[in-house]
Amino acid sequence: MAEACGQKLKKKDKEIARTENRKKQKRKAESKYFMLCISYVVAPTIGEHAYKDKVILKAGTSTALEIPFIGSPQPKAKWSFKGGKLPDAKRFKVETIANMTSMTLAKVIRSDSGKYTVELESELGKAKVDIEVVVLGKCA
Q: Quick check: is 7 in a domain?
């Protein structure tokens, strides 16, 4: 009878060990999926760019003005010409991606000369940069 009791005890011990093992595995699995999400907020700031002097273009040519920036959350970028709208929506295309805004100027003409402004804005602040464009010559 002692052997029978001993076997039952061993089976019970095995069940307890399995239960404890399952608990440990569950804790391990839960800890594997713990993620730490860190978000930061930064006011918009214009990055280094090549347009500190005038941008001189030959009439009829095309170019892209690219302005890097930092800001979190992503600021809205607005391009303007002489304080108003861009000259021609068909020839001027604006695109903003993470940390970069650009404006493509296609087949420029002399009347495209002037001050272009990029303004970045978020709830944390504003930043802006002016770019002077000069178009020389006549379109062919």
A: no
